[in-house]
Amino acid sequence: PPQINEDFERVVEWADEVRRLGVRANADTFEDATKARELGAEGIGLCRTEHMFMSPDRLPAVRRMILADTPEARADALEEILPMQQADFEGIFTAMKGLPVTVRLLDPPLHEFLPNLVEQSLLVQRLELTGGDEGELKAARATLAQVKRLHEQNPMLGTRGCRLAMLYPEIPEMQTRAIIRAALAVKEREGETVGVEIMIPLVALEQELQTQRSIVERVVAEEVGDSGLEVLIGTMIELPRAALTADRIARHADFFSFGTNDLTQTGIGISRDDAENGFLAQYIIDHVLERNPFESIDVDGVGQLVEIGVEKGRSAKPGLKTGVCGEHGGDPDSVAFFHGAGLDYVSCSPFRVPIARFAAAKAVLD
Ligand code: PEP
Ligand code: MG
After folding, report:
1. How far apart are CA 121 and CA 133, in angstroms?
2. Which SS3 state, helix, strand or coil, does residue 273 take?
3. DSSP helix/strand/coil, 255
4. Could you tell me the distance, in angstroms and rounded to a whole number, from the CA of residue 129 to the centre of ligand 2?
């Protein structure tokens, strides 16, 4: 990571005077948010929340939530996690001192929170063979049944993102509550307002965003009271269908953030999990685009989807705020492209923020 010394700081400040694009960071802990601010980030463009469900102290409750068979039991399990997530958000909001923070609601498929199919099958077999504790065997079988139910051949195109939230509305409810309570606590403590932006992932259809927005809005109204806290609700544009129907989606969005990792995966049809390895990596290098499209935006294809998304989104909602939060947000060539496409900001890993600040200035001067 670059060290910020005085000379370097002066040069990036010159860049700041020239650039039009805002530069935010992708950060999801107090430490990353603090680093992002030190490196000049003007907000957080993507706070992923999956780790807030994954840590060992929360996993048992998350698993209970997944195994629960009534909405009430699910909500009970989530209630246990709420204060812990609230504390996480308080840390992030405190570090950002009033700058905007885009929190993305839970994205990964639920099977990621369960033991894997093979391990769980082996556990059940072992308990059956050793004639172990009845209760333990029953629990292991119930988990196995759930693991099988949630198993998908193509999890990246499966029940993740807002699809999860459609099936388990208790999850966005709990997360929204944790976010708003954290923002109000920080506002009270620091005397500074918090720029809360709640983002719905993997939206393909207008109805998905409409439904999710109404859930988030309801909880916001319940929690905000007369505090005057303002909350924006927006969506990721990371599927071709969303980009192509951005005018309809924009009706329910206060902002768009382009998820160019998934948009590249689904736009070109290349698995992002395999792009670094083996045959596919070789194929990409030798035959596709000469450059890895997950590192530098594929201007002709995925780039066009971004341009269409911006144009259609703004045709329905003039001035709609748009950003990008895929890895491309810190790649200089991609930053130049996003500048040309008229985005408002890019968001990248904290250590790439200074590079993005330079690249955004260069895009103006070129
Ligand atoms: C994206 O898809 O570009 C994105 C930012 O989300 P994630 O990488 O978490 O899927
Ligand atoms: Mg994504």
Report:
1. 16
2. coil
3. strand
4. 42
